[in-house]
Every structure is written in structure tokens, then in C-alpha cells.
């Protein structure tokens, strides 16, 4: 199972391995060599069937559930001279936190309106301006996924059970000792 993640405000994507999943929202234990960590919120869909080169008008046939989550990235591991270091920084064990999945019609739209991650109890604005208007929010989210699935599946295939994730805001720096909250997700960086 892979987590194909599209970066905020771009069509670039990378793949996080399933070892990065922290399904139980356990605290994140930061490896000793990491000095800078960032967090970014995302929305994701779980693929119900495999696909390759899926057109956006057919993409909704490939998923039925939506969730949200937080990615942790070890920014201090990224080295401009070694592009592969970006993959290492995004592949750490237990660094991807995901909510439960919701049927597309039952997704809690207040998550889209929040556009904040709480760090140590303080709300941090992380963007999300595209979700500020209440009308047709879920339709816009699903259309965004359909377009991303089309662009991702042109270059790579996906399997049943894979996640397609879209970062909804830029990365924010956090530190060891911080408590992170986003919707039902709550954990501490240790």
C-alpha cells in the first residue's frame, strides 16, 4: 500500500511508504539525527480498485471514501545536492497520521472550514482559503481529487487500498515537545 501525495499548490507528487502510517495517532518519536520537522495537513481518498491512466471524468468510480490527516517531514534531512534525500525525509516510520475514512457524503465539512492545526493548543493558520465558501465544498473537493487522480495516474498506477493524498496547506515548522491537533487527530512529538 502506498500513499501518493501531491504537494500543496502543485502537480508534483511523491510516494510515502505504508511504514510511514501512524493509524492510531500514537505519539511520534523523533529520531535523534533530526533537528527540523514540519507538518502539513492533507485530504485523502482510499482507492477501491486498481487503475492506470484514469481520466478525471471517471476517477470517482475508483474511490468512495474521504479522510484527512497530517504529514510530518524531516526537513533537516533534505539536501539540495541530493534530491533523493526528499524521499528519505518523507519516509520515516509513523510520520503519516490519518483519520477514519468517511463516505463522500458523510465527510465532516467543518474540517475544511477550520483550516487550522493546533500546535500546543494555539491555532495556526495553514491556509485552506479554497474551502472558505460553504457552497458546494464537497463537490469541489471531489473534483480536486478527480483531477489529481488523472494527473498522477498518467505517470504511475495505483492499487486497491492505496491512498491518494493532497496537501491542503504549506508545511509549518514544529519542535520536539509540541502537541499537534487536527480534527480528531492528536499526538505529541517526542
Describe this structure in words.
This protein has helices at 56-59, 85-89, 110-114, 137-155; strands spanning 2-6, 13-17, 37-47, 63-73, 96-98, 102-103, 116-119, 122-125, 163-167, 172-174, 179-182, 185-188. The protein is an alpha+beta fold and 190 residues long. It has one domain: Fumarylacetoacetase-like, C-terminal domain (Fumarylacetoacetate hydrolase, domain 2). Strands 1, 2, 3, 4, 5, 6, 9 and 10 form an eight-stranded mixed β-sheet that branches. A four-stranded antiparallel β-sheet has the order 8-7-11-12, with no helix packed on it. A hairpin with a 6-residue loop joins β1 and β2 (13-17). The protein is globular and about 45 Å long.
CATH superfamily: Fumarylacetoacetase-like, C-terminal domain
What is the annotated CATH architecture? Alpha-Beta Complex
What is the CATH domain class? Answer: Alpha Beta
CATH topology: Fumarylacetoacetate hydrolase, domain 2
- What fraction strand? 25-35%
Helical segment count = 4
Biggest sheet record: 8 strands, mixed
Dominant shape? globular
Radius of gyration: 16 Å
- What integer is the average pLDDT? 88
Order of helices and strands: EEEHEHEEHEEHEEEE
Distance between the termini: 27 Å
* Helix-and-strand structural type: alpha+beta
Unreliable stretches, pLDDT < 50, 5 or more residues?
A: none
| Number of spatially distinct domains | 1
SSE arrangement:
Layout: E1 2-6, E2 13-17, E3 37-47, H1 56-59, E4 63-73, H2 85-89, E5 96-98, E6 102-103, H3 110-114, E7 116-119, E8 122-125, H4 137-155, E9 163-167, E10 172-174, E11 179-182, E12 185-188
Parallel strand pairs: 1-9
Antiparallel strand pairs: 1-2, 3-4, 3-9, 3-10, 4-5, 4-6, 7-8, 7-11, 11-12
Amino acid at each position: 500500500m502506498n500513499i501518493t501525495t501531491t504537494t500543496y499548490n502543485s502537480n508534483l507528487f511523491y510516494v510515502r511508504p505504508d511504514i510511514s502510517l501512524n493509524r492510531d495517532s500514537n505519539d511520534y518519536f523523533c529520531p535523534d539525527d533530526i533537528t527540523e520537522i514540519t507538518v502539513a495537513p492533507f485530504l485523502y481518498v482510499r482507492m477501491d480498485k486498481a487503475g492506470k491512466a484514469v481520466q478525471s471524468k471517471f476517477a470517482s468510480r475508483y474511490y468512495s471514501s474521504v479522510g484527512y490527516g497530517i504529514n510530518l517531514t524531516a526537513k533537516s534531512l533534505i539536501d539540495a545536492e541530493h534530491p533523493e534525500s526528499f524521499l528519505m525525509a518523507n519516509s520515516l516510520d509513523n510520520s503519516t497520521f490519518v483519520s477514519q475514512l468517511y463516505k463522500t457524503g458523510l465527510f465532516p465539512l467543518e474540517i475544511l472550514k477550520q483550516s487550522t492545526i493546533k500546535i500546543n493548543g494555539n491555532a495556526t493558520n495553514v491556509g485552506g482559503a479554497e474551502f472558505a465558501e460553504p457552497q458546494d465544498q464537497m463537490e469541489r473537493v471531489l473534483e480536486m481529487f478527480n483531477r489529481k487522480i488523472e494527473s498522477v495516474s498518467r505517470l504511475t498506477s495505483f492499487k486497491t487500498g492505496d491512498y491518494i493524498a493532497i496537501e491542503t496547506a504549506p508545511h509549518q515548522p514544529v519542535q520536539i515537545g509540541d502537541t499537534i491537533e487536527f480534527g480528531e487527530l492528536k499526538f505529541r512529538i517526542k
